[in-house]
Amino acid sequence: MAKQQIPDISVVIPLYNEAGSLQELATEIEGVMQKENFNYEIIFVDDGSNDDSWKVIERLSVNNSNIKGIRFRRNYGKSAALNEGFYRTSGRVVITMDGDLQDNPDEIPELYRMIDQEGYDLVSGWKKKRFDPISKRMPTKLFNFTTRLVSGIKLHDFNCGLKAYKQNVVKSIEVYGEMHRYIPIIAKWAGFNNIAEKVVQHRPRKYGKTKFGFERFINGFLDLLSITFVTRFGRKPMHLFGLFGTILFVMGFLTAIYLAYAKFFHAEYHMTQRPLFYFGILAMILGTQLFVGGFLGELISRSGQDRNKYLIEKTTEKNWHE
Fold first, then answer.
1. For residues 69 and 54, is the Cβ–Cβ distance under 8 A?
2. What is the structure's pLDDT at 268?
3. What pLDDT shows up at residue 213?
4. How confident is the model at residue 177, as a pLDDT?
5. Which strand (E) or helix (H) includes residue 11?
6. According to a count of CB atoms within 10 Å of the terminal CB, is the N or C end of the chain lower?
């Protein structure tokens, strides 16, 4: 039996209610792959769509063995779709793109070359010219500026869906919640520092409507705080909680010593009538709680967890069922 050839490229496409664009997107990708003579696979991850997206994916997979599909039983979000797609990939280079036709498949060969020949771990697309209203562009600029400042990664467009990765990058990271915006940060903290950026074409939406509202910018800020904590202290929570807990406890303890000294040498001194007494007690209590919280977090982080499981309803590949 001939050994199955490892694909040059795995294209992972998370989608939700994009039935109108999938046939055209698949045709464009196939055309690029055939022109460049790439061995490839396309993995569509249907994030619980309630339109005909899955029917289209099933039809595409029957007509082309390089096309594979995963259907979630419900809508988990883009991060979950990407995480499951990453787990299923087998290509040496993994490329992600959105299913709405706003990402141009013609960018694939150059993204592949930058990973394969120039040796980058991750190449992120930069939609320098966007076809979005100003109400969306301005918050996006602020979001990207803040993320650059916090992460130290000099990218202009963290949230661009068009990215390329070495396979060991996607196999080494976990994307959950709404963390797909911060994959470059997750990759950097996993030890993949060779990150580049490429200007890519942004096309106007042709079918359907956007699935993201203004709330994504609020969620994005909260996710940035979360990912900063998780990547820096997720495996060593005691370094954060223990530090602040110790500082607070020491401050409270020194306050208590000062007040006790004052009471001892001044009989008329009413220690409990001073606000400083209560601040000292509060500092010691909070310090103790933070220290214990850090200790418990350290125990939990050491226990380890298995890969997150999502309720998958169907796949087009029989050997993907687990």
1. yes
2. 65
3. 56
4. 76
5. strand 9-15
6. N
Burial grade of 127 (CB within 10 A; 0-12, 13-18, 19 or more) = buried
* Cα 47 to Cα 254: distance, rounded to the nearest angstrom: 55
278/291 Cα distance (integer angstroms): 20
Give 277's contacts (C-beta < 8 A, 6+ positions apart): 255, 259, 271
Q: Is 162 left (phi over 0), alpha (psi -120 to 50) or beta?
A: beta
Q: Which helix (H) or strand (E) holds 85?
A: helix 78-88
Which pLDDT score is estimated for 1? Answer: 44
Contact 49, 34 (CB under 8 A): no
Closest CA to 96 of 114, 112, 74: 112
Residues sharing a CB contact under 8 Å with residue 227, sequence separation 6 or more, in sequence order: 179, 182, 185, 186
Exposure string over 15-44, b if 16+ CB within 10 A, otherwise e: bbbbbbbbeebbebbbebbeeeebebbbbb
Which structure tokens are listed for 91?
């290509």
Among 320, 321, 317, 311, which Cα is nearest to 81's? 311
Residue with tokens 């997720």: 234
Backbone angles phi, psi at 40, to 5 degrees: -145, 170
User: CA–CA separation, 248 vs 284, rounded Å?
Assistant: 6
Beta bridge partners of 9: 40, 93
Tokens at residue 111, please? 């993204």
Sites in the chain below the pLDDT cut of 70:
1-4, 131-137, 208-221, 227-228, 230-232, 234-235, 267-269, 301-310, 321-322
Q: In this structure, what is the dihedral angle of CA atoms 69, 75, 78, 82, given to the nearest 10 degrees?
A: -40
Q: Which amino acid is at 260?
A: A
89: which 2 tokens?
Answer: 């990939």
| Cβ contacts of 198 within 8 Å, gap of 6 or more | 107, 110, 111, 114, 123, 124, 125, 126
